[in-house]
Specification:
It contains 5 helices and 31 strands. It is mainly β. It has one domain: Single-stranded right-handed beta-helix, Pectin lyase-like (Pectate Lyase C-like). The strands form 5 sheets. Strands 1-2-5-8-13-16-20-24-27-30 form a 10-stranded parallel beta sheet. Its main location: secreted. InterPro entries: AmbAllergen, Pec_lyase, Pectin_lyas_fold, Pectin_lyase_fold/virulence, PEL.
């Protein structure tokens, strides 16, 4: 790879970044609107999720088509596709115990499937965790929607959840109070960790085109038997422990966990856990990593990590060139591979275990694009700026 190409790629990636962790709505969407417009001569760019729906100028009328566009292990998440449209109109009056109609909390706790949208730009500061019920989609397209400066989203013991086009930032712990999770049940919640999105004992979950930054604990954590998850097209920045996949080394039910992490942009100010994996099967495919401060991918308790078609750009710090953090001596027998990844600025991946594809079948969820795909198209991650009547 030529020096000119490396410098050109790094300049593009740095130019697309947001400079402040406390970005306002207008600034957050400017990155999307100026850097990620679709090519005029051809709408489809090779990202199978975006190619499925973003060329449709009538996306607002056809919102539920999105549920047919998921890929990877979370591809069966239908969210609220079979339900009514619910419109969030009230961003101010969050009541955790007795949610008010018109608020986001009232929509997500209902028993029936719902496709949840918004009627204006809003910053929602939740008083406690947003406890979601099954078969819900939170769809922020068309407006600039933030969940910020309070406890954030909890997906616990439910299924079929889609979270799309939301900016989630500055999440803090909550709890030790009454929180309703369905029309029929309200109960005492212990203290939460301050995750952006916490997935606990849940399945069929898809998180797509969100921007996440600067939360107290993880940006996205999946634990306690969660599985069938896709985390795609997200933009993550300014955070320490980005993603934890797996509850603990001793929690063996996480051996069934399968997670796809695809087409994400791991941006500036990230330290570690992109992700940190335990026990399960992890397909890490076609992401861009830039300048991690400790490591990019790590794990313990024998996870299978299938890294394919990613671009890893190390920082200039010579002590952080390795993108993986191996475990103890047992790690040598764990199956970690790098297949078609591009390593820049001295980045390197330490493989282990088996090299043949047969060992990675359970950690394969989609066909990886060549890493060159990521350099030949404009970055397309994070919350989108979608205008009615034109392709998003």
């Amino acid at each position: 790879m030529s020096t000119f190409f490396l410098i050109f790629l790094v300049m593009i990636l740095l130019d697309t970044s947001i400079s402040s962790k406390n970005v306002q709505i207008s600034e957050a969407t400017e990155w999307n609107s100026t850097r990620r417009q679709l090519e005029k001569e051809s709408c489809k760019i090779g990202n199978p999720i975006d190619d499925c729906w973003r060329c449709d100028s009538e996306w607002e009328t056809n919102r539920k088509v999105l549920a047919d566009c998921a890929i990877g292990f979370g591809r069966n998440a239908v969210g609220g596709q079979d339900g009514d449209i619910y419109v969030v109109k009230d961003s101010e009056n969050d009541d955790p115990a007795n949610p008010i109609p018109g608020t986001l909390r009232y929509g997500v706790i209902q028993e029936e499937p719902l496709w949840i949208i918004f009627d204006h730009d809003m910053v929602i500061t939740l008083k406690e965790e947003l406890m979601m019920n099954s078969y819900k989609t939170i769809d922020g397209r068309g407006y600039n929607i933030q969940i910020a400066d309070g406890p954030c989203i909890t997906i616990q013991n439910v299924s079929n959840i889609i979270i799309h086009n939301i900016y989630i930032r500055d999440c803090v712990p909550g709890g030790n109070t009454m929180v309703r999770d369905s029309p029929k049940h309200v109960g005492m919640r212990g203290y939460s960790d301050g995750d952006g999105i916490s997935i606990f004992g849940s399945r069929d979950v898809w998180i797509d085109h969100c921007t996440l930054a600067n939360c107290r604990d993880g940006l996205i954590d999946a634990v306690v038997g969660s599985t069938s998850i896709t985390i795609s097209n997200n933009y993550m920045l300014h955070h320490n422990e980005v993603m934890l996949m797996g509850h603990s080394d001793d929690f063996l039910d996480d051996k069934n966990m399968q997670v796809t992490i695809a087409f994400n942009f791991f941006g500036e100010g990230l330290t570690q856990r992109m992700p940190r994996c335990r026990h399960g099967y992890f397909h890490i495919v076609n992401n861009i990593y830039t300048g991690w401060e400790m490591y990019a991918i790590g794990g313990s308790a024998n996870p299978t990590i299938n890294s394919q078609g990613n671009i890893f750009i190390a920082s200039d710090n010579n002590s952080t060139k390795e993108e993986t953090i191996p475990g103890d001596e047992e790690w040598k027998n764990w199956n970690w591979r790098s297949d078609g990844d591009v390593m820049l600025n001295g980045a390197f991946f330490t493989p282990s275990g088996e090299t043949g594809p047969q060992s990675y079948i359970k950690a394969s969820s989609m066909v990886a694009r060549p890493a060159s795909f990521l350099t030949n198209t404009s970055p397309s991650a994070g919350a989108l700026y979608c205008q009615r009547g034109i392709p998003c």
